[in-house]
Amino acid sequence: MSGLLLHICCAPCGGGCVARLKDEEDTEPVLYYSNSNLCDREEFDRRLDSVRILARTRRLRLEVDPYDHAGWLAFVAGLENEPERGARCDRCFAWSLGRTAKMAEALDMDFATTLTVSPLKESRRIFAAGRRFPRFREIDFKKKDGYKRACEIASQLGFYRQNFCGCEFSKRPCPAKTQEEMQKK
């Protein structure tokens, strides 16, 4: 089995990605939980608890990036009023993937992200952020029923399932267009 550092935002997204990597691509991922965009430490820890369950049940190594919400806020400064799925999200992707790239370099590994499994995130935008960093692998985890598989695994393992991306700005009501798109998926 080859190795890959897998940026993981939450266990519900990660479960299907891990299954695909291990079962279909013969890749043993190292999980890298990096989530400084989360609005508070309580949410960070709550999601981390489920990531730990995923790591334990799949017998995977887990690395945890220290929570630095103040640093993340400074990184996205000026974009606070952007709508969900706007320019702030691109900056957020760059933050998380940049931190993951540093860990991948330290571990001498390629890396990918679970962010691409979400039907609410455009993989092409995530890939654009990832291309800025060496050793980034473009894996669209939505393909091959990735999101459906992720939901099934999350349900089986009883993962905490959040109802917002994570930052305080994503708690605002979604624009009508976004709500309509969500209902179609």
Please tell me about this protein's structure.
- It is a single chain.
- The chain has 185 residues and is α/β, with parallel strands linked by helices.
- It has one domain: Rossmann fold (3-Layer(aba) Sandwich).
- Helix content is 48%, strand content 11%.
- The chain contains seven helices and four strands.
- It has helices spanning 11-24, 41-57, 69-75, 87-107, 123-130, 146-157, 176-184; strands at 2-8, 27-33, 62-64, 111-113.
- Strand 2 (27-33), helix 2 (41-57) and strand 3 (62-64) form a beta-alpha-beta unit.
- Helix 1 (11-24) runs parallel beside helix 2, helix 1 crosses helix 6 (146-157) and helix 4 packs across helix 5 (123-130).
- The N and C termini lie far apart (34 Å).
Classification by helices and strands: alpha/beta
Radius of gyration, Cα only, in angstroms? 15 Å
CATH architecture: 3-Layer(aba) Sandwich
N-to-C order of helices and strands: EHEHEHHEHHH
Give the number of DSSP strands: 4
Count of helical stretches = 7
Question: How far apart are the first and last residues' alpha carbons, in Å?
Answer: 34 Å
Strand order of the largest sheet: 3-2-1-4
By CATH reckoning, the class would read Alpha Beta
CATH topology: Rossmann fold
Parts with pLDDT < 50 across at least 5 consecutive residues? 174-185
Major sheet, described briefly? 4 strands, parallel
User: Share of helix among residues?
Assistant: 40-55%
Quote the average pLDDT.
Answer: 88
CATH superfamily: HUPs
Number of domains: 1
